[in-house]
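Hi everyone,

Forwarding the result from last night's run.
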Amino acid sequence: MYKLFSERKKEQQGLVNDVYIYNSFPEQFRNQFFAILKRLFNENKIREYAECRGWSINTDIWGPLCESFAQEKGLKAIYYRNGSLPNTSSAFEYYADRAENEDFLDLLDFSFSAFIDCEEVREVFGDEAVNDAIEELNYRLKQHSLGYEFIDGHLIEKTNEHIHKEIIKPTIHLLSEKEFEGANEEFFNAFECYKQGDNKGAIINAEKSLESTLKVICTKMGYQFDKNTDTAKKLIDTLKTNNFFPNYLSNHLNTLCAILENGTPTVRNKTSGHGQGEQIQNVSNELAEYELNLVATNIVFLVKIYQSKAKN
């Protein structure tokens, strides 16, 4: 991607916005989003893709994309102006140009998560073309200070660039291994809940992801535990009993265990894991964000120790 002179000048003058925007998608970004899809869906490959999906060779790829999205949104179709040209590239572009911000975010998420980053599209259009499209999407999101990134088939909301780069992305990468697929799904569910404002759900799913990670490690290492009843605290005790933690890291791991045993599980028990009583308990965005980052940090640490042991 070429960085325009105006962008370079803003960077030199320190005028680049480092605060993320989540609920406003400028016209320039919408145009770039449509251009990415249009370049990927080049006409030379459309017939081959139709044959791969068992469609009529005259089927335009924009039609199924619009139809699928319309179905998920509860719409009859995606129309061009005045209700004409339903489910065409012109209709898609028209919708992308004029959709409310929330609807546009749904369109962006659906286009890449449910349609582009899938086996059939990769098979016909090629991994390189799909990966290039994803790379450019992430570049454009960052270019416009939009707080999202597309990673491993999911659109993730970013809260802090350093934390996202150093903690969240490594967690997603480590949990992408098949043996951790359950923990990976729960980790993504936590982010989905957080994105939708369900902070309690975010905390519960983050804790589930941590516990699933611990159970996988205990299983792979051959440690005895009760997979139905053991909590994070008991699983950590199992790891300690079996000398999973290296001796030279004892001080750090004592602190880590204290955080896990008295911090993370306590957050869940006191806010989300039990009944609310007479008063509805509100979980703040700050607490949910802290919980996600805390769990992610500890998952990375634990999985890296496990991977090191597995190699020996």
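The chain has two domains: 19-158, 165-311.

Cheers,
N.
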